[in-house]
Design brief:
- There is one protein chain.
- The chain has about 400 residues and is mostly helical.
- Strands 1-2-3 form a three-stranded antiparallel sheet, with helices on one face. Strands 4-5-8 form a three-stranded antiparallel sheet, with no helix packed on it.
- The termini are far apart.
């Protein structure tokens, strides 16, 4: 009686190795025959693996194993080159620094497919042990997460290892909110023309880099407007003019007294339309650390204030505007595309407001409706269309 004919395998091949184990090979979508990444104890195990691989290919879920063998060093360099044209100069420099200093030393020679969540968690833990700040660790993790997400999107690996990793918490820091009178005292204490720069931070809500980048052509004294369309940033020691953060250009109205101060400054300002409003004594663009040490910090001390940063003035402005004219108006003046950023990072409760609310609530209980207090210019359904703050 003839022996039973062996059924021909219709996908892939299986062969027995000298070790007694079995090797499976399969044709990829490109027709190239590829071996499985491991061997099998039985033919049945190998056949099951081939069946799953076939379904993977037919469903369009197949990934070329060679792609996953790309090193983290090579892929992160390719990713950074691809995204760089869309990044601001300072962001690009920060990403490059994080990749070179923290990501490549840890993972550079490893294949993308070899990274696992535990690998990333151990890396995060090692950075914490070395004493890196929570901010630095979180920044490095976010960049690696973007690199690996791009690898997933491009079919290099099936999923990102940056998942389920506990990151160190950022310390809770609250801005020092000044009163308008305290800010005015600080302006008077600053040396000219830096008193005007401080006034623009406090009473127009500019970022420091935006104030440093203001030019004569940005000022419309007739209408009382300041155009904020540039930002001066420092990256790796190099000063770069760029668009404002989040690319949010805006036209701000300033009050008459502030406009007059700007006008007097422009009268004495040398240069043409592109001349910067504020420079070093040698006529060069300002650098934040030098400016703060030479002009801002001495003014804070002279004004009898403590623990005040230039950024606190912007946060104070946001708080004043949000309290009186609504969060949407504050968001516009601060250059935020989303009002949630304003409430999360800038607008803070004004001292004494809770007492006023309690008094109003007591009047409501008695059947009376007190006259509006400090929140003027809008009602409970404010849509943010109230006028911008015009400081006296």
């Amino acid at each position: 009686m003839p022996g039973k004919r062996k059924k021909r395998r219709d996908f892939g091949r299986v062969r027995k190795l000298p070790s007694g184990r079995y090797q499976a090979r399969y044709p990829g979508p490109d027709g190239v025959l590829r071996p499985a990444d491991h061997t099998f104890a039985t033919v049945t195990d190998a056949d099951l693996w081939l069946a799953r691989k076939r379904v993977e290919i037919e469903d369009g879920q197949w990934l070329d194993p060679a792609e996953g063998q790309t090193t983290v060093r090579d892929w992160s360099a390719r990713w950074l080159a691809a995204v760089s044209p869309q990044l601001k100069h300072k962001t690009r420099a920060t990403y490059r620094s994080l990749i070179n200093a923290l990501i490549v030393p840890a993972f550079g020679d490893r294949e993308l497919s070899s990274l696992r969540p535990i690998t990333v968690a151990e890396w995060v833990g090692s950075m914490k042990t070395r004493g890196l700040s929570a901010s630095r660790i979180r920044q490095a993790y976010r960049v690696l997460s973007q690199v690996m997400r791009a690898a997933v999107d491009n079919g290099m690996v099936p999923q990102t290892p940056c998942r389920g990793v506990r990151l160190p918490r950022m310390p809770e820091t609250e801005p020092h909110i000044l009163t308008p009178l305290e800010a005015s005292r600080l302006v008077r204490a600053a040396a000219k023309p830096h008193d005007l720069l401080v006034a623009l931070l406090a009473y127009a809500g500019l970022r420091v880099g935006e104030a440093f980048a203001l030019r004569r052509s940005d000022i419309d004294l007739v209408s009382g407007f300041v155009l904020v369309d540039e930002n001066l940033a420092e990256a790796n020691g190099t000063l770069v003019f760029d668009t404002p953060k989040s690319h949010q250009k805006r036209l701000l109205r300033v009050g008459p007294s502030l406009a007059k101060r700007i006008g007097r400054h422009l009268e004495a300002l040398p240069g043409g339309e592109d001349a910067l409003l504020f420079t070093t004594p040698g006529g060069k663009p300002l650098r934040y650390n030098q400016w703060r040490k030479a002009y801002f910090d001495p003014a804070v001390k002279a004004a009898g204030l403590v623990d005040v940063t230039p950024h606190d003035l912007r946060a104070s402005h946001g708080t004043w505007v949000a309290d009186r004219y609504g969060v949407m108006t504050a968001a516009y003046r601060l250059g935020h595309s989303n009002a949630s950023v304003t409430t999360r990072h800038y607008a803070r409760p004004v001292a004494g407001r809770d007492d006023q609310v309690a008094e109003a609530a007591d009047s409501w209980l008695g059947g009376h409706d007190p006259a509006p207090g400090a929140r003027t210019g809008h009602d409970d359904d404010d849509d943010g269309s109230a006028g911008a703050l015009v400081p006296a």
